[in-house]
Amino acid sequence: MLNKTFIVILFGLAAGYPGIVDERGALTHWTDYLHLDVARSTEIIDGHPVDIIFRLANYTDILDSDSDKRCRMEICGMIYEVTNSSVIDQNGNLAEGITAHWQNMFPYICGVSVQSYNSEVFADYGYTVKAKFDEQKVFGFVSLEDEVTSGLRLSENVFPARQAVFINPDYSSGFDNYGIAMKYTGRTVINVTIIEEPQECIIVQADEMQINDYRISGFENLTVGLDFQRTFVYICPDNEQLSPGEYQLTLNFTVDTGLFPRNSSFYQYGLYYKPCTSDEYEENVCWYTQGESTIARNIMPCFDEPKFKAPFRTSVAKPPEGFRILSNMPLDGKVQIDDQEFWIFQETPFMSAYLFALAITNYAHVDSTDRQDINIWCSEEDIRNGRADYPANISGRLMNFYEEYFGIKYTLPKFDMVSEEKKFTAMENWGLALFDPDTLLLDPNQAEGISDVRWRVSTYIAHEIVHQWFGNLVTLSWWDQLWLNEGFAKYLSILGAELVDSTNLPWARFIAEEMQTALLADSDTEHHWALSGPVTSRNDVHRKFGVFTYSKGGSLIRMMKAILTEPVIKQGMTNYLNAFAYESTTEDDIFFYLEAAAKMAGTWPGSYGGSKTFTEVMELWTNQAGYPIITAVIDCENPSIKCQAHLSQTMYVTSGPNAPDRTWIVPVFSSNIRPAGLVTQSLFWLDPTKTVETIDISSLYTGSNTTEGLILFNAQSYGYYRVVYDTKHWMKIADTISRNKTEVPILSRQAILCDLINFYKNGWIGEELYDHVLSAWKEEYTQEELWTINKC
């Protein structure tokens, strides 16, 4: 199908920024200011851009100014030659609907205006334009999508075997109206392996930088291709293929925010700098990196996908006097390169590019109390004021705890924990974790009692230390299953908090602040999403860094622990980490090792009588958004018959559009709470194929009168679901709470409270019943209950 429109393709110096709408509001530009400039209209009508403008720019001279021929280009397979007055196609005919654009002065411009394009050519990937200036050949891609959703992944047949990175910061860089005016140059040398089939090009990822020079060992004539929207850089031998084997790719690059302003006010990605302290008169700047999720490519050209792992060897130009460079590994030495001193760091183990890290600061450090390989870096003032004492006291204990828990020693020779002003959170870079001061440092007067400030510090430190195993040693294969990193870090950080900060009531906080937060969000069908659902674009990856990945992920891991038992899940995690050290995984891998450990211990299938594997059961929870509400009708009034519970499930929805009703294989954690606090527990399973499941719960009454005690489902808040009881049973719950609420374990009380409040707000129970049950607390709430009420 041929669509009439307007396209301009220009070669020359062009204005505009990468992916930035220009002042006229009509064009979006992508450029590297060296090879190509691409622009197209932003307005879309009937699925197609209006006044589409594609423009490529090249800073090299165009053809001889005395010649009638200006430049040559290939557009979607058709070769065109631009002259002073016309465009000639490859058959020597005047190109229909295409006119010449050129300028014979600086900036040199040569291009074409195209009044039509074939939409079928655009359908899968976009528009391809090739051009030649003297001996330099370039090509570029332009997609019609504002947010590209196809062709985002690199080939699995081409991967890095080793990468050396040289970075030369301009330490005189300062600040301007855009926030920072930063510049650095670099070179990266990547040993590339090609397997299975020949390749036309080696493709790496790079964003907001110029590729100044490019070489592939064994080839002299190369073409560079740039796909700005996908952030791909193609280095291609001319008229040759790259056979399976080993190659060395060398790229020289420049990052300059004068050319590439950082994304709005959020400039803390890639390699960047900021004032070293919060003092408004601070003149010193410190440099840091942030590579997660897909922004290692803003530091350097690389294979910026987590499944691609390689050893990194880092070299950085000598810092200013009084400053120190830290990287993932210890300093290996200092060398002179072209009359300039570079600090060389030891090579890392195989790791993903997003974990590459630098910190260039004027900070001092204190050692961990329990380990010599852990250092806390911050300003000398913070050290004098004792703010580094708490992290020094707990970091070594946490590292020792996780080494023992996993049965695997921490892999690297050191672990630096560095304070970074206005980091806001923290980043787990292998061997060099970066923290906002509020997540690392603690005023000594906050070191005792229940403290939200200390809780933030202790759990963030635990979280980033856990990542040295879950995330760094073993890494998710792709961002769609980010919970493999963050969910396990969330769950395991609470285990660490039990060790170092038990005063802060770790599991009660987890139930109120993490699990209930996830449940509240997950009942909104407009905004919830499946834990392992796909990501559709580079921007969409950021969505995964949210409540479901962290809080729902951690909650489901805790639920798995309750199904399999703590010793089993611990052994399963250890086996998984050993099996995939220095590799990447999917959720099927962790499920496999948990199930194998459970079968060995006899805890799976256990009471589950269905035909599904543990993986299949759990994927119902990770591959579906939402969660069930369990309706429970309990019939235990007649001692002459068995006690029964009639259970049914439906997806719990409190807001958002109608969605298909989903079902789950539900582990029902049941308990009978009797006077004096005696608790009997059992695990039943709810079959999603049955409308109502009748379960014999007589086993919960072993050794007691049939009517004695309080039956509760979702004991200890283990289940990622809500439970609504029949009215008679709600009244029995109220009676027990009113008589002596401490008979009901606090984590079970939290589930009752939050369910009760949520059901009343959303019309599942009436006001009279709500008031009666809530009044059983007599307005006397523990700290854990207050947290729950405030959240729910």
Morphology: globular
Distance between the termini: 55 Å
Strand order of the largest sheet: 9-8-7-12-13-18-19-16
* Number of separate strands: 43
Helix proportion range? 10-25%
Low-confidence region ranges: 1-18, 20-25, 49-56, 58-65, 117-125
Which value, in Å, is the CA radius of gyration? Answer: 31 Å
Strand content: 25-35%
Q: Which secondary-structure class do the elements indicate?
A: alpha+beta
Average pLDDT, rounded to a whole number, is 87
Question: What is the number of helices?
Answer: 15
Main beta sheet, described?
A: 8 strands, mixed
What is the compact description of this entry?
With 792 residues, the protein is α+β, with helices and mostly antiparallel strands. Helix content is 23%, strand content 31%.
Explain how this protein is built.
By secondary structure, the chain is an alpha+beta fold. The radius of gyration is 31 Å and the shape is globular. The protein has an eight-stranded mixed β-sheet with strand order 9-8-7-12-13-18-19-16, with no helix packed on it. A seven-stranded mixed β-sheet has the order 17-20-15-14-24-27-26, with no helix packed on it. Mean pLDDT is 87; it is low at 1-18, 20-25, 49-56, 58-65 and 117-125. Helix 13 runs parallel beside helix 15.
